[in-house]
Input
Amino acid sequence: MLARIALWCSLLWLLVKVSHSLPADTGLVRRDADFESVRTRLKDDHSGKGGDPKEKYWHESTFHPHYDGRFAEKTIAYADRRTHLSNLIQSYLATMDDLGAVTWIMHGTLLGWWWNRKIMPWDSDLDVQIDESTIHFLAAYYNMTTYHYKTEQLPEGKDYMLEINPRYIHSATDDRLNVIDARWIDMDTGLFIDITTVWKDKENPGSGKLNCKDRHHYLEKDLFPLRESYFENTKVKVPFAYTEVLVEEYGQKSITKTEYENHKFNPDTMEWEPLRGANVGGAAPGPGVRPGKNRRPGSGRRRPPPR
Output
């Protein structure tokens, strides 16, 4: 009996100790997936963690904002990047389909789909969205899981990791350092897909208004029901009113301008082809979108809240 009492006292003491060690606001301990915990082939960490604010979860590489420095030490050449991005989105879409997760492409990735169902050749990252139930589901069961995926382009396959930002639970738009809720990361090249959650407007329940932490706003009828299509030869879902969504975000020229970022769209081949003698090594937002200071591809114009 005394032994049993001692055991219960020990367990109670441990529970009290743990409860006092956790932050009162969330009940969770914030854990960074630092270089040492996920390292693969690199000897040194090339993430920007050392110079980032401590509240920021994602630490993009020191050499390019669209690479994860825990897995990459340099950018990929233009001639090879699109192949890696294609495998990146194929692996993501196939995995989310297997898991039963609701997701769809958005921003610059959706713009590439609109033109020819492919990634625009100057892009260096990809954007998708998910709904509230999906982010909770992925965070609860699949955070920090890795997947080996093979394609015809890369028959030997490679590893990808799903990582959830623990600050995803804060759905307000005031946390400007953590607008990306999750990422699907190529553990070989450091390329990644930004995953953002679409939340119901808590201030106007039942209104059909939706928003993201990156301050994009939508109506339910803009996005749902999702349409089924193909992107990079893989099944994909896109917003219901995709043309209206793109024009609202990027302007009318984004779906009419056929020359951009040293490329010209060829309607016969249905491809964005480099202009002769042009420098095609960079990355830009998309046709008709005027680049701004520190603007990343796919940011474009922010949509005002629907009325």
Notes: The helical segments are 2-21, 35-38, 78-99, 107-116, 132-141, 220-223, 242-250. The two ends are 68 Å apart (CA to CA). The longest helix spans residues 78-99. The first strand starts at residue 103 and ends at 105.
